[in-house]
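Example (one chain per record):
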Amino acid sequence: MRKITKEIAVRNLKIGAQNPIAIQSMTNIAVTDVEATLAQITLCGEAGCDIMRIAVPNIAAARAFKQVRAQTDMPLVADIHFDYRLAIAATENGADKIRVNPGNMSLSQLDSVIDCAKMHRIPIRIGVNGGSINKDVLARTGSRAQAMYESLTEYVRYFESRNFDDIVLSVKSTDVTETVRTNRLVAQLGYPVHLGVTEAGLVKQGIVKNSIGIGALLLDGIGDTVRVSLTADPVEEVIAAKDILVSLGLKDGVTFVSCPKCGRCSIDLENVAKEIYDYVKNLDKNVKIAVMGCEVNGPGECADADLGLAGANGKFVFFKRGKRYRTVNADEAIEQFKKEIDALTNDN
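Predicted structure:
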């Protein structure tokens, strides 16, 4: 069961409570290249992204942020480290939410950020990660997970003492187990939680680590926004996050299955599966598509698929809900199968 949290508005997007889990990514180019930043935001949006975060490392970036804000409807989060003046500038330049690590600011500086957010009625994401744990708390607790939780709790109570509770919580570590343990504690605080495993690595390694960490927490009912952090194009992050949510039944989308290749396979299964997957991966329909490497296992393994195909000896057999209904020559099978997918999804 999904844990109920406070509802937070980020531009026109509501997160927390029982709202759908939002997918977030982050631009990986300097925001001062406004045109390229907008192009990246557009591509991520087309892939299914709900919120984009933008690094604001200097005043030039804060000024460029305003130009980006004026040219997209995507909810934008300004990512701030150390300099509270940049948080204020980004807020004044149209940020829909700001992300800060309070441990990088003095209390007076943090007060200025809170006052500005209040004035502009935007939320603040409080971020704590494994690389910025309070050493005194760590020494006292002896546990990194407990130290991150206690540090974050202290920040939350300070924000509340300033009558500001429009907040989102985020605790991340490069360690999957540590991330899961900490977020299970953080979920007790009642605010929306942003999930992710930080600095997870390249695509294959990063997707594995994020899928385990994010997936475990989502199965616990924890999490209101997710980012699959990868050393890669941010579109890859969005696709991976969407796959996680669809796999857990938390988002509409295509369930795609393909069999592991064995000695019975006589087709180029990997490329056939890839082409079909690329065709359906961005659909927001709840359908199941199966690609099988031989006719032997097709009916059984495609039994619960809305559409499936299996190839052997220059022919492809099409299945609909486990029933064989059409045989097509190999050279036209993929294009014909795409037409079947179009017909199915247009009807749904």
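Caption: The mean pLDDT is 90.
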